[in-house]
Amino acid sequence: MSWSESLIRIAGYEVEVLQKRLAGVVDRRIAAEAAVARLDLEATVEAAAAEAAADPFAHLAHASYAKAWRARREQADAAAARVREEEAGARDALNAAFEQLKKFEHVAERARLAELAAAGRRETAALDEIALRRAAAR
């Protein structure tokens, strides 16, 4: 295995690991956003239940619920924001690793083409030498 194949393989592995990490972060972001949506839905249901209740204390209980709900909603929003930031960082790391992989692949391709060109030059030189020897022998 040549140096270029080793570098490409290592860089490819890093890209794969970062893709898996990003997939995990995306799953966590989706879960965090779903938690926020659940809280919003729960608040809507509770508000409708408080409005429909004939009990005057339901409105007082709903006020306490709404205060607690806002605190939970802020926590859920903060958690979702942290996961979104982590996702952005994971995407940046994946992009950087992918660029690095492409650089290694480009360098390896250039080295392969240079080797082919050198081999072509050597073959041409060898054929020229054979032709010169034949011409000198005549």
Main attributes of the structure:
138 residues, mainly alpha, 2 helices, 95% helix
Protein architecture, described:
With 138 residues, this protein is an all-alpha fold. The chain has one domain. It has helices at residues 3-52, 57-137. α1 packs antiparallel against α2. The longest helix is centred in the C-terminal third of the chain and has 81 residues, at 57-137. The two termini are 47 Å apart.
Question: Percent helix among the residues?
Answer: over 70%
Low-confidence stretches: none
Secondary-structure element pattern, one letter each:
HH
User: Can you tell me the overall shape?
Assistant: rod-shaped
Most strands sheet: none
What does the radius of gyration come to?
33 Å
Our count of helices gives 2
Strand content: under 5%
Mean pLDDT: 91
- Total of domains: 1
Describe how the helices and strands are arranged.
Blueprint: H1 3-52, H2 57-137
Helix pairs in contact: 1-2
